[in-house]
Amino acid sequence: MIDLHMHSTFSDGTLTPEELARLAGGFGLTAIALTDHDGMDGVARCLAACETEGVRGIPGVEISAQVSKGTMHILGYFVDHTDEELERSLVQIRNGRETRNKEILEKLNALGCTLDWEDVRGLAGEDVVGRPHFAMALQARGHVADKKEAFDRYLGKGKPGYAERFRLDPEKSIAAIRQAGGVAVLAHPVTLGLGNKALRKALAEFRDMGLQGLEVYYSEHTPEMEQTYGDMARELGLGMSGGSDFHGDVNPKIRMGIGFGRLRVPDELVADLEARRG
């Protein structure tokens, strides 16, 4: 069993890269990929820890791409995590996140949800602050009951505390991954907010831009969705991937390797994805 989608304290997860590797070894996973948001600072530590735990570590990243509707994230597998050109692109994205975070803080305070930057920063671990940390801070200050309410009332797209940020477009995101020797895979396609017909059309366009795979197996995908996305991947010649999107205590209901309990990502997907490099 494998898990090719998880986050550490270097983005918005609550476990260090070493803790993720130990947990994976304890669960008997054969391979994991650390796919932190818009950064690769935790990859080297994860790879070293995986070697100690007898788990195959795959260097990865999850890039936020700009789309007009929904949310688009592109996973990069087998990337050279020391590639300077990819790192420059990621720094550009992260700088946009910092500007957005300041705007969110200002909006929340204007809405009467009093927060200090230290309230949010202190919940972010070792690296980039994201909306989940604002949600945690809102809950800690008693402004909301839980993370869901925070997003439903303030932080979700179109809500009064939401702010846009700089992202690369899909083509540039895919190119950045591939130029670093990686395999570009569309994460959780459901978040694009498209019907199946429109999604298939979009996937064909992304494939022509260089997209190489689709995340078919995911914690929030039903068996019917897995079947549909698997069929699309095969029809379009895309590889298949899968993972839990594990964040630790940020969403404790999602467990590494098994998601909400039924997730099973086939081991053989690793070899197919690796064969698509270059």
User: Can you list the strand order of the major beta sheet?
Assistant: 1-2-3-4-5-6-7
Residue share in β-strands: 5-15%
State the share of residues found in helices, binned by percent: 40-55%
Largest sheet: 7 strands, mixed
Number of strands: 7
- Counting DSSP H or I runs of 4 or more residues, the number of helices is 10
CATH architecture assignment: Alpha-Beta Barrel
The CATH topology corresponds to TIM Barrel
Description of the molecule:
There is one protein chain. With 278 residues, the protein is α/β, with parallel strands linked by helices. It has one domain (2-90, 167-275): Metal-dependent hydrolases (TIM Barrel). The protein contains 10 helices and 7 strands. A 7-stranded mixed beta sheet has the order 1-2-3-4-5-6-7. Strand 2, helix 2 (43-53) and strand 3 form a beta-alpha-beta unit. Helix 1 (17-27) runs parallel beside helix 2 (43-53) and helix 5 packs across helix 6 (147-155). The longest helix is centred in the middle third of the chain and has 27 residues, at 84-110. It is globular and about 50 Å long. The model has no long low-confidence stretch (mean pLDDT 94).
